[in-house]
Amino acid sequence: MSGSVLASRRPGGAHPVVLVLLAVGSVQLGGALAATLLPLVGVFGSVALRLGLAALILVAVVRPRVRGRSRSDWAVVLLFALALTAMNLTFYGSLTRLPIGVAVTIEFLGPLALAAVLSRRARDLGAVAAALVGVVLISEALTTPWAELDLVGILLALAAGACWSAYIVLSRHTGARFAGLDGIALCMIIGAVLTLPVGLVTAGSALWTTEALARGLGIALLSSAIPYSLELMALRSLSAGTFGVMLSLEPAAAALAGLLVLGQVLSWVQVGGMALVVVASVLVLGRPTSRGGGTPNADPGDGGHLDSASAG
């Protein structure tokens, strides 16, 4: 890392790069844990547990202000919650069909494409093209017979990426209207309200078992509360470009979490495809930009998080 990044470490505190790496690892461990919850309570049950328990944690810690909000404020946070909820549902749906490393890599096309479109630079568009080649390799579309290719899983991961892009854009609008973590706390509450009824119908009493609640709490902590807090501290002294480079490691972190937690092994061709996506992400997301520039790094302090939190 450059001297400026190293100099950003505050005396007595952890280096901001270390905090972001811990956040990335936390999110992907949460995603791997979610893959073990899905067989117990299904997609809606898993999302309902994650959002519901995360909402309880954030409400207790943040205590978001509800009164005095305008109709436009509520409209923005509602759209934000819909994007977050759809992102989680489609991503968890993809986890039932694809290894987590594959799902996260395909999903990562969403924010990567958004960054390239916003930048309008030929190099960034070329990087996205390279990432598309990487996704083709990691999905095994060239080596797997068409009839055996899990198109539904791939489409769900692509849909999660599109929702992730919408989430990033809406997080900025939410951050402009809600201070601190108020926006994400209210977003989690709305998401929980939207998913809990369906989760109760589809999962039934399994939703309240000790095992499901324990795993749901772990996911809420690993995928939401812990990474939001770590990134909030890191972004006080870390540039957007460096932050983007760190987040570009998410597909690799997901593959490692899948290997360690779920025993999912990727082929060398898939690892090569993942490397293409990671390199493309570093080129696009690691480019220094201003706050309003092309890098879609949402500040958790402003209500957003560029994750598979998200996603994961």
Keywords for this entry:
single chain; 312 residues; mainly alpha; 12 helices; 0% strand; globular; disordered N terminus; disordered C terminus
General description of the model:
Helix content is 72%, strand content 0%. The chain has 312 residues and is an all-alpha fold. The longest helix has 47 residues, at 16-62. It is a multi-pass membrane protein. It is found in: Cell membrane. It comes from Ornithinimicrobium humiphilum.
Given helix and strand content, the structural type is: mainly alpha
Distance N terminus to C terminus? 27 Å
Overall radius of gyration: 18 Å
- Name the poorly predicted regions: 1-12, 290-311
Tell how many strands the DSSP assignment holds: 0
Question: How many H/I helices?
Answer: 12
What number of domains? Answer: 1
Overall geometry comes to globular
What is the arithmetic mean of pLDDT? 81
Helix coverage percent: over 70%
Largest sheet, in brief, is: none
Q: Secondary-structure element order, as H and E?
A: HHHHHHHHHHHH
Q: What proportion of the residues form beta strands (DSSP E)?
A: under 5%
